[in-house]
Amino acid sequence: MDHPLTHDLTISEILQRWPRTADVFLRHRMACVGCAIAPFETLAEVSKIYQVNLEKFLLELQDASQSIVN
């Protein structure tokens, strides 16, 4: 069973489990995709660093993780 996308996951975990979320990070001009610190920082920490509303950002990531590519 896959774990839900939550604020306490590291950026690397999110990108590895849900690769389509990379577009959301890039859209917000975050350098998380390919960052050497991504395995250590959580979504909550990164949201604070980039001053992004965590709840809204999490919803965007969840939407992207569930989207179907045709």
Tell me the span between the first and last alpha carbons. Answer: 24 Å
**Helical residue percent?**
40-55%
Q: Count the domains.
A: 1
Largest sheet geometry: none
Characteristic terms for this protein:
47% helix, 4 helices, 70 residues, mainly alpha
Report on the structure:
- It is a single chain.
- By secondary structure, the chain is mostly helical.
- Helix content is 47%, strand content 0%.
- The protein is built from 4 helices and no strands.
- 17% of the residues are buried.
- The model has no long low-confidence stretch (mean pLDDT 92).
Layout of secondary structure:
Blueprint: H1 11-17, H2 22-27, H3 43-49, H4 54-66
Outline:
With 70 residues, the protein is an all-alpha fold. The protein contains 4 helices and no strands. It has one domain.
